[in-house]
Amino acid sequence: MSDGLDGSAVPLFEMESPDRLLLSTPLVTALGDAFRLFEKTGQDLNNFDVCVAERRKENGEDEDGVDTVGIAFSAKLPPGQKGLGNASRLGRSIMYIASRTTGEILREQGSR
Asked: Range of 84's domain?
């Protein structure tokens, strides 16, 4: 059982009420860093949806086996267009993988 000191027992975010979201400090750090990296791509954020998800050891651990967070900037499809995967003319989707405990961006994964 975890003692919570490694960050695994602390939730990334909590809904305190329908109009209030509480974010963990490492998540805020990771979001800020991911946004700055995304800005450097020169793509328009308005053409993207942003999804934040915990990545457990089964599907996304870092090199030391620590749980990570995925911050995905997913390109939207133009109105009326259907597509599979990253088939959007509005941009190239990208995911940043961050440490759950520190918020440090560990790597990025891009789609073509």
From this structure: 13-110
Judge contact between 40 and 46, C-beta under 8 A. no
Please, are residues 70 and 108 in contact by the beta-carbon 8 Å criterion? no
> pLDDT 10s digit of each residue in the chain, 112 long?
334 444 455 677 788 888 888 888 999 999 999 999 999 999 999 999 999 988 876 555 555 556 789 999 998 888 777 766 556 788 889 999 998 889 999 999 876 5
Q: CA-based angle 13:106:39, to the nearest 5? A: 80
Structural domains of the chain, count: 1
CB of 112 within 8 A of CB of 92?
yes
pTM: 0.77
Nearest to 33 by CA among 74, 76, 71: 71
DSSP state for residue 23 in the 8-state scheme = E
